[in-house]
């Protein structure tokens, strides 16, 4: 049995900064509400014509991660791409990255587990490396949310939260037992699938249908029945998130005979600063034990953990031998954790 470790990290966010005040010019919202409820001050949005897409942002993050890992694109055995906002309905972004990296052929797998997507992908990469099937796996989380949000007042409870960006990690085989990915735990509960969802386009909501519904829905206040914008039952999601975050973090720690006091850095999926603060308080962690950057980027879904992990590493907040815990909760519902010995 081999061990896998993260050999390189990278991130990319679009240059275009959108503040809460910018949003308040196009919908009925305000900086105070957004900061108080979510902690978000600003986020990045792709600007029409800036060349950014989910795949191209992922490519930029991946290039940095590969350089830092000192691993050439030809050594990549598998690409895993996590996103809820792919460039195309099909094929997935994984093959686009493979083409952008000019890799002749290699397997490319797309993961659709929303906010838990990066940890699900990390687990897949870890299993392939542990069994010896692959040596180097390129894992990417990238999202273009801004292209598909409802920026009218009707969609404000969702659209103010999300931002665009990408993060990437290169996982490689390590002979150092006890270092690297120690464990991953994955969960889902499909009975809550529609509490946080985007229903179309899909085989239930093809484009002609959506156009017809779009016309019929004109002037409606509720976002619940509109299939082409994301819907979120915010308070229900919040309650489930705080419970599942706590559970899955403890599950990971227990598996490794660790306790909350052993955590050097917790990197929670950046869904809402209030959720991170709740977890921090519950586990009595110091500020320097929890990394948050939602204030600057909003919720970037599958990209949020790799962006945060990259920044924490760039800022020197992660050192060799540290115990790092990643945890996520999101649409599905899905939730997951990973315990890493850096
Ligand atoms: N600006 C101003 N007012 C607003 C806004 C806004 N942007 N959005 C909603 N409001 C209003 C509502 O209309 C409502 O007004 P009312 O009381 O007059 O009816 C009031 O504010 C409260 O709205 P709620 O939706 O109840 O606000 P809440 O405190 O629940 O905050 C939020 C909403 C931020 C979405 C929160 O519920 C949350 O963070 N939920 C969890 C998110 C999460 O963890 N998601 C998982 C990951 S995402 C993924 O997987 C894709």
UniProtKB/TrEMBL annotation:
Q: Name one GO molecular function term.
A: beta-ketoacyl-acyl-carrier-protein synthase III activity
Domain of life, per UniProt, equals Bacteria
Q: According to its UniProt record, where is this protein mainly located?
A: cytoplasm
Q: Give the enzyme's EC designation.
A: 2.3.1.180
Q: Where in the cell is it found?
A: Cytoplasm
Q: According to its record, what are the GO cellular component terms?
A: cytoplasm
Region entry ACP-binding, spans: 270-274
Key words of the record: Acyltransferase, Cytoplasm, Fatty acid biosynthesis, Fatty acid metabolism, Lipid biosynthesis, Lipid metabolism, Multifunctional enzyme, Transferase
Question: Which intervals hold domain Beta-ketoacyl-[acyl-carrier-protein] synthase III N-terminal?
Answer: 109-190
Give the reactions, separated by semicolons, that this protein catalyses: malonyl-[ACP] + acetyl-CoA + H(+) = 3-oxobutanoyl-[ACP] + CO2 + CoA
Q: What residues sit in the active site?
A: 115, 269, 299
Q: Name the Pfam families on file.
A: ACP_syn_III, ACP_syn_III_C
Its annotated pathway reads: Lipid metabolism; fatty acid biosynthesis
What family does the Swiss-Prot or TrEMBL record give for this protein?
Belongs to the thiolase-like superfamily. FabH family.
Name this protein carries in UniProt: Beta-ketoacyl-[acyl-carrier-protein] synthase III
Tell me the name of the encoding gene.
fabH
